[in-house]
Amino acid sequence: MFRRREAVPFAFVAEADRFRSNVTPPARQRPSISEVTGRTLIGLTVVAGLVGSLLFGLPAMEAGPAATGHGQQSEASHGR
Predict the structure, then answer these.
(1) How confident is the model at residue 24 (pLDDT cuts 50, 70, 90)?
(2) What's this model's pTM, rounded to 2 decimal places?
(3) 26: helix, coil or strand?
């Protein structure tokens, strides 16, 4: 169904591994103080949101009286 491509000679592969470019990439620019501050504030906001959701969510996940089956019953159920 599919045709196999021509095999690549081993010498070509070995030569490609040794190839070095004489063009150097430009140096990376250092982020400015405002960029570093912005990234830090975004990181702190994300962490604070996760901690806040954990603090508000833990009491809701605890097994309270309603989960044990010994919850309050209405007065109407006692009269029957």
Answers:
(1) confident
(2) 0.48
(3) coil
